[in-house]
Specification:
Radius of gyration: 23 Å
CATH class of the largest domain: Alpha Beta
Number of domains: 3
Strand order of the largest sheet: 3-2-1-7-18
Largest sheet: 5 strands, parallel
Strand content: 15-25%
Shape: globular
CATH architecture of the largest domain: 3-Layer(bba) Sandwich
Distance between the termini: 69 Å
Helix content: 25-40%
Number of strands: 23
CATH topology of the largest domain: FAD/NAD(P)-binding domain
Oligomer: single chain
Structural class: alpha/beta
């Protein structure tokens, strides 16, 4: 079989690359090879255990989008790639020759062997595998006490969802605060308070030494000897890039195991691209390698790659990840973009922070109004916005995107201060007390001291 563009993987990046690429190059043949008969919406996976109800309600409409744009799909697994002859061999034995290859192989959960989970029932991870997740959900339905190890976004979200279904959930994190790698302490503490109110038992500054039980989970043992009884354990200790196929193919990886790419998302071989969780990320501000895995970042990279497959454009390049994270717990929204205060200080920036608290509707007596807290991290020498965070209602997700745009365009606080914003009582905060602008005011005052 022969194709012009072969894409390996069908999650967020594997969906966007061929659909964008086909629109730009309608005369080219695009083929996607994927092991998944149905691809999951990555960020929606925790919600199948509560709000969404089941995995069938969390399916990425990949097949439909491929069909609409004329992209061919093969349900198989690529076992090897010869980058010199430009041939990929599938598990079925079929070979596919290609002109351009795109690795969109994603990531997989970190599975620390030292926890001794291998021979115990009811120890789970959170992959993007529908079959695995369906079996996991079925088994968890018979469990009452669940321990989640790791309080990143997936650990926090899945713990909250399981609590909503009546499960007793304990969330354990070795850092001093949950979501400690994404948020500064002030935001992390707000998230923690909301989770506790909703019934999640949270233990921070604790390290799990082992999972107890012989053939089945009985609990977890902490480093201080405390044992917490549990019917099931969910290990959510991060993800690693799925790059073994690329490595075996002679593609260069960085020291963190990600595929090295340039600003056009090309690998060491200019006819081979990599996008999404498997591809190297560089921090937008520092230019340093950053182990960020986000569907939003993956889609941005995929759009860049799709536009540059056959003809490069100097204005369609990826300048680095801004790391825009957001989540919601009930009607509380949290978001972060760019550098946190702690990260900026660690990197050696001299900074000031601007903060403000207000209401996300006006008047505040509206039934769905919510307190809104905005924090900006600003370079002291230039006033350029390095990062920001938001805590508030569900509008926090869009507000943190606005801050992300400001960071990406290297706006300073003076430019943001005079930005015109549209407001409406049912949709936004008051124009006279818009928390984002008030946070800018706070930063300007400090710079002028």
């Amino acid at each position: 079989m022969k194709t012009d563009v072969l894409v390996i993987g069908s999650s967020a990046a594997g969906l966007v690359v061929p659909t964008v690429g086909k629109r730009v190059n309608p005369d080219k043949k695009f083929t996607v090879v994927t092991k998944q008969n149905k691809s999951m919406i990555p960020c929606g996976i925790p919600y199948i255990f509560g709000s969404v109800g089941k995995s069938d309600n969390n399916i990425l409409p990949a097949e439909k989008m491929y069909e609409q744009t004329g992209v061919e799909v093969i349900h198989d697994e690529v076992m090897s790639v010869d980058k010199n002859t430009k041939v990929a061999v599938l598990a079925s034995g079929e070979s596919i020759s290609f002109e351009i290859l795109v690795f969109a192989t994603g990531s997989e959960p970190v599975k620390p062997k030292w926890l001794n989970w291998q021979d115990k029932e009811n120890v789970f991870f959170v992959p993007k595998d529908k079959v695995y997740l369906d079996e996991m959900q079925q088994k968890l339905s018979a469990c009452n006490s669940i321990v989640t190890i790791g309080a990143g976004f997936i650990g926090v979200e899945i713990s909250d969802e399981l609590t909503k279904t009546g499960k007793k959930v304990t969330l354990i994190e070795k850092l001093p605060n949950i979501l400690g790698l994404a948020f500064d302490k002030d935001i992390s503490e707000k998230v923690e308070a909301v989770l506790k109110e909703r019934g999640v038992n949270i233990l921070t500054g604790c390290e799990v030494k082992e999972i107890t039980g012989t053939t089945k989970v009985e609990g977890v043992k902490l480093s201080d000897g405390t044992v917490i009884a549990a019917d099931a354990v969910i290990i959510s200790m991060g993800y690693k890039p799925n790059t073994q196929l690329a490595k075996n193919s002679g593609i260069i990886l960085n020291d963190q195991g990600f595929i090295k790419v340039d600003e056009y998302m090309r690998t060491c071989d200019t006819h081979i691209f990599a996008v999404g969780d498997c591809a190297e990320k560089k921090d937008f501000v520092t230019g340093k390698s950053a182990p960020i895995m986000l569907a939003s970042t993956a889609c941005a990279e995929a759009r860049i790659a799709g536009m540059n497959l056959f003809k490069l454009s100097v204005i369609k390049t990826f300048s680095g990840t801004i790391s825009i994270f957001s989540t919601a717990i009930g009607n509380n929204g949290f978001g972060v973009a760019g550098m946190t205060e702690a990260q900026a200080i660690k990197e050696g920036f001299e900074i000031i922070t601007g903060t403000a608290e207000g209401i996300d509707r006006h008047p505040g007596s509206l039934s769905d109004s919510h307190k809104q807290y905005v924090k900006l991290v600003v370079a002291k020498d230039s006033g350029v916005i390095l990062g920001g965070a938001v805590f508030g209602g569900l509008s926090a997700g869009e507000l943190i995107n606005v801050i992300g745009v400001a960071i990406q365009n290297r706006m300073d606080i003076n430019a943001l201060f005079i930005t015109q914003v549209g407001t409406h009582p049912l949709l936004t905060a008051s124009p006279a007390a818009y928390p984002l602008i008030k946070a800018v005011e706070s930063a300007i005052i400090q710079l002028n001291k």
